[in-house]
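Z., the sequence and structure:
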Amino acid sequence: MLSCSKKIKHHAYKSSYVSLIRAFSLYTRRGDKGETSLYGPQRVSKDSPRVEAYGTIDELNSYLGVILADCRDSMTTKSLKVIQKMLFVASADLASESGSSKVPRISSAETRKIESMTDELLARLPTLRNFVLPGGTRLAAELHFARAICRRAERRVVGASKGQKLNPELIPFMNRLSSYLFNLARAANAAKGKKEEIWKA
């Protein structure tokens, strides 16, 4: 059972998502001149750093969907679905003007959750002492690709934060997530007995 405060918070989050979903579901022609609305009255260019940041997070989330379409590992499937939901929150956070209380925000709780998930992986993996080439099994290769997209999303968030006030928790969250995806790729190789290829100059 949800407490009263949690019910109110859940309702606010749900209302925000409904608004975002409606924005994606309808064509309004308001973006035909290269501008889009943040969650609020502000209009910005579609190539603005903030839009580029949450667009790259959307790209990452979509690519995780591609991975999930063929993933047969239950642990990986469960973990990636948790991450997809977090990424929706991150996108909504970036797409909303600071000060809006009706929009879900990434907090230190999500960052700690990713850290805990990473620790669970590292407990089962051998200590890494060298750089490894991205690849191995199909799943591992796709997770490495997702990790690279995540790094790009992190860079976009950093860039956007230099010109406007953003949630400061977004950067550490994206940083931890890229590390998690890297180690998830390693775990995918280990699960199939695929030896990682060490990089040599």
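The longest strand covers residues 35-37. Residues 4-191 form a domain with the Hypothetical Protein Ta1238; Chain: A; fold (CATH 1.20.1200.10).

Let me know what you think.
H.
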